[in-house]
Amino acid sequence: MVEVGLLGKVAVSGGGGEVGLGPDRQRCVLAALAVDAGRVVSVARLTERVWGATPPLRARGTLLSYLSRLRHAVAGVEGVDVVRRPGGYALEVDRAAVDLHRFRDLRARA
Question: What's the whole-model pTM score?
């Protein structure tokens, strides 16, 4: 079963253990997608989430490179995928696999 961790170290793990997600900024891209797991996040919103209000000049190219690397990193993990959709990108994963969403659901039930 896939597990996406946002509370603490940003991580993805599956049957084969933890996936190598690369440098911190690249992990930040995964986190920016996982916050809206299953929903499309625009490139502009991803850029803002990763770099804030003043991104570097080459932010778009760097972001696209990070997305490509993340797509390859999770390719062997069943139940999770980074996909291109009209309007942006999405992390296709069951929201229950993301610790942040499980926490929010449990808090709402309390």
Answer: 0.93
